[in-house]
Write a structure and sequence with these properties.
Blueprint lengths: L11 E5 H13 L3 E6 L6 E3 L1 E5 L11 E3 L15 H10 L7 H18 L7 E6 L2 E10 L4
Parallel strand pairs: 1-3, 1-7
Antiparallel strand pairs: 2-4, 2-5, 6-7
Length: 146
């Protein structure tokens, strides 16, 4: 498959479901900018990998393509469980008494459930923003860490 400096040759991207989940979790729980990155040279089938973006890190051209993790999941994807919300849920359960330890366990369980559910919401296509314009490509989710 011929390689190119131009991203217009990309037809599909492969991404591990764990990278999508991790990028969304980083975006939600920190002030870091986690993306899925496609690095040149480009060809028809590319791999997008988890990357925590840094300002001014690229001086070469062509630059890698960064995909926001939010753009890889459908609009109805579940939101990351916030600690304040899981505390409210736990306190509202009449069969449980609240404790910090119970809240920690409950919150960790809800985060695990979110991580397990999220891959089902990965889109079939995504629109890439490139210097040459917008282009829609197929998304091929890969299960697990590769």
């Amino acid at each position: 498959m011929p390689q190119s400096d131009h991203p217009h040759v990309i037809r599909s991207i492969a991404v591990t479901t764990s990278d999508v989940v991790a990028a969304l979790e980083i975006q939600t729980t920190s002030n870091r900018d986690a993306v899925l990155r496609i690095t040149p040279p480009f060809n028809g089938r590319m791999r997008a990998r988890l990357h925590v973006a840094q300002a001014g890190e690229y001086t070469d051209t062509p630059e890698p393509i960064h995909i926001s993790p939010e753009g890889l999941v459908t609009a109805d994807a579940p939101s990351y469980p916030q600690a304040v919300d899981t505390e409210d849920e736990l306190r509202a359960d009449p069969e449980l008494s609240y404790s910090v330890e119970r809240h920690h366990e409950y919150h960790a369980e809800r985060v695990r459930d979110w991580r397990e559910a999220l891959p089902a919401y990965i889109r079939e296509t995504v629109t890439l923003e490139t210097p040459e314009g917008r282009q829609t490509v197929t998304v091929k989710p890969l299960v697990g860490d590769l």
